[in-house]
Design goal:
Blueprint (H helix, E strand, L loop, with lengths): L4 H8 L9 H6 L24 H4 L3 E2 L13 E3 L2 E3 L13 E7 L2 E7 L1 E6 L10 E2 L1 E6 L4 E6 L7 E3 L13 E7 L2 E13 L6 E14 L2 E12 L6 E6 L8 E5 L6 E8 L10 E9 L7 H5 L2
Parallel strand pairs: 1-7
Antiparallel strand pairs: 2-9, 3-8, 4-5, 4-9, 5-10, 6-8, 11-12, 12-13, 13-14, 15-16, 16-17, 17-18
Amino acid sequence: MRIPAILFLALSLVACNNSPDQSQADKTDHTHLLEIDTSLVEAPDTARLPHEDELQHYAPDTADLSPEPSSAAKIMIEGRFHKHEVWRGAEQKSWLALVHDDSVFRLQPSRMQVTPFFDPVFDKGRQVRSGREVRGELPNTLLFVSGIAKLQASEVDTVGYPHQVILPNTSVDLRYKGKTYTLAASGDSIQQEGSESYSVQNYNWTVTGTKNGRKIKQELASDENFESAIYVLLWVGDLDRDGIPDLIADLSNHFNTSKVTLFLSSLAEKGKLYKKIADFKTEAYPELASPDSLSKP
């Protein structure tokens, strides 16, 4: 539904110091891909939205919730989402929360609260509250994870990196415990006909590193077409404590969606560095943070 705070934070911290080489820069420097074109996001019609005092009388709509995903591993983030994006019984699962606590990241058991709210996209014209707001009991929660036996409550070592957006034909080095894992992006930015806007095409991420003394190169994700979007690296750290840093990224290829994805190293197949464990997909719309904003004309 809306872009979660973690994604806004990631985008706001993007640095642009790692430029492509000159031969590539002659074709395009790709820096235009970091600009957010707010004209692409249609603001909801607020003229007919209910006032705050009306909302408390609207009935929660929790019928026909999505079924629980069949995969054992599941992830979720805090935020406000459409009804179909949060599956039935999510709040009843046993969750570990990745939290940022006093300059340290930790995995900690956490209860999850899911409450209804007025969804201005699907509830307009209906006296119901079908939106699903997800909150944990711990502050500064980046991610909820469930169903992965290798993850245990503990402090988590993290890895710093210079860029969250990796421009096409550039890379970042993830250095951890004396080893370097290189996350590289390839692709093209194409100017749209009759417009000053650009779009990414044939974009992908590959990671290269050493495992058991062997150098491995693996493609992590790819998409042929993007709509005013690019992958975002959200967090890097050793969640499963196997000595190889794990990855959390938004792998959406469309400005109106997010696709928060978890990669773990300890569950990777032979000859691979990582395995995609789970993702959480949502649709975005402009921020309507509270009932107060709905009540204003």
